[in-house]
Amino acid sequence: MIRCTTAHVHLDAVRHNLRALRAMLAADAALNRDAGAGPVAAPDIIAVVKANAYGHGAVGVARALEEAGAQMLAVADIEEGIELRDAGITLPILVFGALSVSEVDGLFTHGLTPTISSPGAGRALEQAARARGTTLSYHLKVDTGLNRLGFRHDNLGRTLQALLASPVLSLEAVYTHFSSADEPDVASVEAQRRAFDTACAHLVACGAAPVRRHAANSAALLRDSRLWFDAVRPGLLLYGMAPGALHTAMDLRPAMTLTSRVVAVKGVRTGEAVGYGGRFAAERPTTLAVIPAGYADGLDRRLEGRGAVLIRGRRAPIVGAVSMDMLTADVTEISDVSPGDEVVLLGSQGGAAWQQIDAREMAAAIGTIPYEIVCRLGSRIARVTETAIDDETID
Ligand SMILES: *Cc1c(COP(=O)(O)O)cnc(C)c1O
To answer: Which among 25, 46, 48 is the best mutation to test ligand 1's pocket, defined by most ligand atoms within 8 Å of the CB?
Structure first.
């Protein structure tokens, strides 16, 4: 049995988005070559599958990305990396997050690449590698202004020496992360880019051999090819969503649709109130569809009065409180709605633009970002993998 509220994960869309990104990077690199400015080689792709692949199901998405030719995967912590290795993923896997001392074993037993973002983490890994009589490759994180994880870019001379001198730790790449790549303001991105350039030069001055560099998430890579360096780290784009206010000519396909079914239809009289708190009072005889998806499934309570669902190809506004396990939509304008009718919460129901609701629209309705919409979908919602008939004919 499967509940009727279901997330359909389109792995063909994930593969398509990766290929579309690669084609875009190659085309832009060729333009740079002709123009004599900017990088002339397309960067590698480190595909980000943290947080259960942004709620889409880490293992399925990782397999799709591996098939489509990503060079590396990235996860938030060691546990996420182990899940992928246990499922047979063989691509290199970068762990972004801070390492807690107790868990570093997994790096060695499961062949994961850690990020070292502090001298203390460097010492812990040095000890662990020595104890195992082995060497470990790592990526170095430099903080250029986000002020979260990473070695401060302006203090590397003091903090890096011991790490770079380690015979058991091998520096594979250096990276940073932008704070505001999806915002119109360019000043902070440019400042971070320069700080990163300087930090990389400093590394070489400290005695490191030249290493690979990466910095750009989806927004940054779309914004400026000078932010590509040797590899880019897209997440959002691969799931078919464009970041922030940025628009892209890329043909992105949403990797997730969320559907349900009407479980009951209810008529209320003028003046009657609907749902907890009775905040919605019918101004006319009103027909409501009851849909078995609520905040326990990650559907935000702020959707009340702001969001909509699609039923019979029409938009039905969400009215009354979103409760834990269900929500109600006003279907007065839609004829013949019956229990069993398909409900689209994210996705399309017909070919017209208004017959589509995407994570960006839902996010805008409640004042958040599309990342949160897909990452928050609850564990009660089954992720059903939709396999394409044939990727290439769809592309
Ligand atoms: C999540 C994350 C990314 C991917 O960001 P998107 O905006 O989804 O492309 C890249 N780099 C780091 C360090 C991240 O944490």
So the answer is: 48
